[in-house]
Backbone:
């Protein structure tokens, strides 16, 4: 029991010498984690795919205020999104302005389907 606890403690605190085989095993385990971890484990932001009530996937596109102008209407935003994505059949289902700390509009989150 003491040998196992000692081994786990050394591995956790990374106290093996740099030229040991244990050091190499720990480095390989870290590399395996980095390269084999699914990307979906790290997606927590608001720019993920969401499911709508009609079971069709919905995407979120972020547009800068410079791209669509100072006060665009929904038709202008839809036209710009179609031009950017190259998808003439898409529908804009929602537009949310994004503001900086002073309250100025810096961009728009556009829900498309």
Residues:
């Amino acid at each position: 029991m003491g040998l196992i606890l000692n081994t786990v403690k050394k591995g956790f605190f990374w106290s093996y010498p740099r030229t040991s085989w244990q050091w190499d095993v720990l480095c390989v385990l870290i590399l395996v984690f980095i390269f084999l971890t699914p990307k979906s484990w790290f997606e927590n932001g608001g720019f993920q795919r969401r499911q709508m009530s009609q079971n069709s996937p919905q995407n979120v596109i972020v547009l800068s205020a410079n791209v669509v102008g100072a006060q665009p209407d929904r038709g202008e935003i839809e036209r710009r999104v179609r031009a950017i994505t190259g998808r003439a059949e898409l529908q804009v289902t929602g537009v949310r302005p994004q503001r900086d700390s002073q309250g100025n509009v810096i961009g728009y989150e556009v829900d498309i389907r």
